[in-house]
Each structure stands twice: as C-alpha cells, then as structure tokens.
C-alpha cells in the first residue's frame, strides 16, 4: 500500500499546485500542515512572535477553506503544531510513507528544514521538492538561479525577452483516500493562539482580508472584472487610502491561496477582451518583482537576513514601531500597519527608509517587525525589499526617501494622516498636517524621534515650503 504525504507550507491551494500533480496516483494520501511552534513564541529581539495575529488568523482561515476542498475530493487535512521536521518525519516513519512532497520554498528556515528532513530520512523515504507559486520555475526561468542578475531591471529585461510562463495546472477532481490508521483533524485556533482568534482588523483599513483559495479568486475577479483596476492601476497604485487602488492580492499570494501564474493568466484573459494597456502591464511588472525577490532569496539562503546577530529592540525602534516618531506621515503608516496587518507599497517604502536612513535603525529589526505584523508576509519579498531600501546586499544604491516631500506629494491634503491620527484634524488641510513640530506633545512624550541630522533637512524643507496657513 503506497502512502504519499503532501506537506503543505506556503501553498494552501489545490489548483495550480504541483504537489497534487502525481505521475502515478498513490493508493493513500495524507495532506499535512505544521504550524512551527517556534514561530508562535516571542523572539528575543522583539519580544513578539514571528507570526502575528493578523497573519495567523488568515492562515487559519486558509487552512479551514483548504480542508473543506480536500474533504470534497475524498481527502482531508491534518494540522499539527510543533517542529515541522519532527512532525513530518514521525508521521512518515510511523505509517510507512513511500513519498513526501513539498514545495521548494525560498525561506532559509524552510530550506534548512527540508535539508534536515532529508538527512533524517536517509534515503528510506523519497522526498521530492517542487517549484510552485511563482511565475517561473527552475526550467522556465530565463537565467540560472546562481547567475541571477544583481538588479531587477536586468532580470526583468531577460524575463520579458526570454522567459516563458506556463499555464496554471487544474485542481484535482478526486484524490486518493485517507489511510484509516492516520488520525485527522485540527486543533481549534483558540487553543493555538488566543490573540489570533480574537483578532479583528480595524475598519479604518477599509478592507477585510479573508483567507482561502475561493476568497482569493473572488478578489482577483473583483479586481479585474468589477473594479476594472487593470484600466487605472498604474495611476492609482501609489495611493494610501481605499480598498481598490492596488490589487491587495499579496496576502493570498503569500500564503499560496493563489499562484502568480493564475494572476498572470487572469490578467492576460482580461487583456484579450479589453486590450493590453500600461496598467495591465504594470500588474505583471509587479509580479516580476515578486519573482525576482523569490529567486534572489533562493540564491542567497541565510545571507538574505544579514550576517550579524539581530540586536535587541531599543527606544528608537519602539518609537518607530508604535507610531510615536512625531512625523505624522510615518506614524500614520505605523498605526495602520499595527491595526490592519497591511500597508500600501508607498507607505512601506517610506517607513522603511525613515527607520533605516533617518533614525539610523538596524534594517533587520524593521524587517522583523514587518514580519510580525504583516498579513501578507512573504520571506523573500519582505526581507528582499528591506535590503533594497536599506541599500545592502545585491543592490547597494542609496534610496533615501524624503518623507516630508513624499507626504506632500502622496497625501497633499493630509487626509491619510488625519485618517489614522484624528487629532491632526484640528490643523488646516494641507502641509501643516505633515509638520513634525505641530504634533501634540502630550501624545508624543519627548524625545520625539526626529533625528539630529534631520533638523537641518527640515529647516531646508520648510524654508522652501511655507506652511499654508
Ligand atoms: C519594506 C517592504 C516590505 C515588504 N514586504 C512584503 C511582504 O512581506 N510581502 C509581500 O507580498 N510584499 C511585500 N512588499 C512589497 C509590496 O509592498 C506589497 O507586495 C504590496 O504593497 C501588496 O499590496 P498589493 O497586493 O495591493 O500590491 P499590488 O501593487 O497590487 O501588486 C500586485 C502584486 O505584485 C507583488 N508586488 C508588488 N510590489 C512588490 C514588491 N515591491 N516586491 C515584491 N512583490 C511585489 C505582490 O505580490 C502584489 O500582491 C514589501 C515592500 C516593502 C517596501
């Protein structure tokens, strides 16, 4: 009796999932997801778990939805909380599995787990890894992973010239039965984590993320066919307020409820009906960024996280993370992040730049805080973007964001800052709402986190830009 274990990690879907594309159907199948206990415990550096409540709840919803789909096809899902390698190995050994299938993930921990599992199994059980979730796979990628270009532009040019993107795979119609000897079922979310069970996204975020494959497809459908974002994405993607200025597909992509190839195919279908335009092109362009960070992470392994030990969070970090820097644009974004688990790309770039370039913070602390907060955390995109903004790693160009100018450009009336900090509504609409020295000293106990070097910059900015009162 052949038993296959499909070990699902960041690929919580049935369609376009090569783990379910068997050359020869096994007689029995077990689908397993392991929540890494370590990721649910506070880290020494920040004192919070790597997986925060917004993401854990989304993952949970995705697992519930996946279980429903698996049950419909004659299978089921087993969820364990523990050490992934121990859980997978003991299940496989105990029930005499013949094969374990797993996605080839970009994260260093995920790669290490597969290596450790392989050593532990010592060739007794076949362990196969499969590319999944990205636009390209190792066969269609236009370059070798080892010789990935150091810049995105060079990668994009090659991808657009020579890369081919396969059509997504269909979901399996039926699946092999669950073996009688293997228990099924899942613990309750409340038992796993009280704070995730109680997590409710702040309605000021104007959007509700609901995990699962069907919810992901619903969002994709909405974005392309109802909101017609592909007509205007290039113009709206840098906005800060609203549900439909960007796709918001990141959470479903990060947990594999959707694959990038599915999004790519849906955009191409939309283009076939409406004709391609710069906005539809730009959605694919952003997916190429995602692929680039994925392949870069695969190439770099542990190098992605920097070489030194992560320092412990200090007062500067706390002010930034809690949205108490005294710079309204930055604080608004940090409030939004904590309250909703999501931030627009524009806001992410600004708060990252401010933390690293202006406050002199260690970029890895910032990345670790994002990792805790984000509903759409994806190891390659998060740590890759942080390195990119910090100017470390593969591309060391200086990318300082002038956050006051950015605030004035992207939030000219101060609607975003007042949305997240209503006390600023007392100030006249416009520039006045972005000025650091206007903040209420009772709400921002000294020292306000305006860096020394900034005082000169601020003076220069405010000499050039008169407050509009
Ligand atoms: C410091 C920092 C940290 C980030 N951390 C993450 C993260 O953990 N997870 C994550 O998915 N994205 C991350 N991003 C990238 C980007 O901000 C988000 O993907 C995007 O804001 C998600 O919103 P959206 O789905 O509406 O994106 P859209 O603008 O609609 O873009 C469509 C899709 O393209 C991909 N994408 C867009 N921009 C980027 C980018 N710069 N890098 C990689 N992929 C991109 C995403 O999958 C996104 O869903 C980070 C960016 C920065 C600057």
Automatic annotation (TrEMBL):
Named cofactor requirement(s): (6R)-5,10-methylene-5,6,7,8-tetrahydrofolate; FAD
Start and end residues of each Photolyase/cryptochrome alpha/beta domain: 2-135
Binding of FAD, residues: 233, 246-250, 376-378
One biological process term in Gene Ontology: photoreactive repair
Domain of life: Bacteria
Keyword S-adenosyl-L-methionine: no
GO molecular function: deoxyribodipyrimidine photo-lyase activity; DNA binding; FAD binding
Sorted UniProt keywords: Chromophore, FAD, Flavoprotein
Cofactor remark from the record: Binds 1 5,10-methenyltetrahydrofolate (MTHF) per subunit. Binds 1 FAD per subunit.
Record has Ribonucleoprotein as a keyword: no
Homology family: Belongs to the DNA photolyase class-1 family.
Function: May have a photoreceptor function.
Protein name: Cryptochrome DASH
Organism: Halomonas urumqiensis
